[in-house]
Design goal:
The protein is of the alpha+beta class and 80 residues long. Helix 1 runs parallel beside helix 2.
Length: 80
């Protein structure tokens, strides 16, 4: 059984991985002239419902109105 320190370290590493991936996708969107926003709504575990892509020039929602997870966001930003 893992110790409390092992669990804390693994959760911290996972959090850093998600944060790094989110930052990379935000940079990709900025390069395309878009903006990635995280939903303000949270699920019962306190995690954001999803991510949205907007055009900052005209403030128009370009992605799905229900939000996307990071996998879907990456696919959306890399589509041709």
């Amino acid at each position: 059984m893992p110790s409390l320190i092992d669990v804390w370290i693994n959760n911290d590493l996972l959090s850093n991985t998600v944060t790094a991936r989110e930052s990379r996708l935000r940079r990709r969107a900025r390069h395309l002239g878009l903006c990635v926003s995280k939903s303000r709504r949270r699920n019962r575990w306190g995690q954001p419902i999803g991510y949205f892509v907007t055009d900052p020039g005209c403030n128009v929602l370009l992605s799905d109105e229900y939000g996307m997870n990071l996998d879907e966001l990456e696919i959306w930003l890399n589509k041709d």
